Amino acid sequence: MRATLVTYVAIFALLIGSTAQAAPPEVTIAQTFDTGQTGTVTVGDPLTLTLKVERPREATVRFPDEQPTGRFELQKVDRQVAPATTEGRVVETITLRYAVFRPGRHKLTSFDLRVLDAAGEVSTVSTSKSLTLTLGAS
C-alpha cells in the first residue's frame, strides 16, 4: 500500500511539472534620454531615447503597434544586437529618435515591450519611466 501511494505521488509530481508554464525569460532594460550637447531643447531638435535590452539569445523583443508618444514624432529606429555571451544572453540596443514640433510641455509616457521566448510564450516588460520636456520656440 505504501509503495502504491509513493507511486501516485511521483506520477502526480510529474504531471504538475509537465503542465506548469515556463517562466518568462529574464529581460532587463536600461534607458537613457539624450537631448543633445547643449542640454537645451527647442522645437524640432532631435531627441534620442536609447534602450539597452538584455535578453536570452532565443527571445525576441517587439514594440507595440503604436507607442503613446503624444507630440513626440518618431523619426527613426535603429536596432543593434551584440554577439551572445557564453551564458547565451545578448544586449540589444534600440535607439529611437524623436522630434517635437510645438513649443510647450510634452510628455513621452513609458510603454511596454513584448518579449517572445523560444517556446512562443509572450511576456511584457516596460520602459522605466515617462519623460517630460519643456520646449522653447526655435
Summarize this structure briefly.
This protein has one helix at 2-19, and strands spanning 28-34, 47-56, 60-62, 73-81, 89-99, 104-108, 112-116, 122-126, 131-135.
Measured distance between first and last alpha carbons = 85 Å
The count of β-strands is: 9
- Tell me the radius of gyration: 22 Å
Mean pLDDT: 77
| Order of strands in the sheet with most strands | 1-2-5-4
The major pleated sheet works out as: 4 strands, antiparallel
Percent of sequence in beta strands: 35-45%
Helix content: 10-25%
Structural classification = mainly beta
Question: N-to-C SSE series?
Answer: HEEEEEEEEE
Helix run count: 1
Report on the architecture of this protein.
This protein has 138 residues and is mostly beta strands. Helices cover 13% and strands 43% of the residues. The protein has one helix and nine strands; from the N terminus they run αβββββββββ. The strands form three sheets. It has a four-stranded antiparallel sheet, with no helix packed on it. It has a three-stranded antiparallel sheet with strand order 3-7-8, with no helix packed on it. The protein starts with a helix and ends with a strand. The N terminus is likely disordered.
